[in-house]
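Appendix B, record 7
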Amino acid sequence: KSTGSLEIVTTIGRIMKKYFINVACILGLLSSGVYGADVSSGVYSIDAIRVSDETGITYVDPEGSVNIKNLSCTSSDTFAIDRNAASYAQIYSALLAAAASSRTVEVWVSIDANDCLNGRQRISVIQVNF
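Structure tokens (predicted):
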């Protein structure tokens, strides 16, 4: 009888461990969304990408109009990425892959006051929809 009880306790322990790990992961994801200063601007197809050596900014021109989420940015023709951004290479390559394969991207922009690049909303997150 004691072996059966031990197996039950062990099984319950494994289930509880998986449960708490899942809850911790979900809470981590939710808290990063709550405390982040980024918001989705929408889903777009990429019409053009322009890299400017003069400004150090990469401009992303989506098909259609840009949804303005950061009200301190004055230009709504394109999004922008700073080439000094920590994830610049990843964001840029994701945009190239999406444009080359005619896939859409969801664009998140910073909504921090005055966090604009040459008057354009700064891209903070890209999701390529494959």
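Remarks on this record: The longest helix spans residues 2-35. The chain is about 35% helix and 35% strand.
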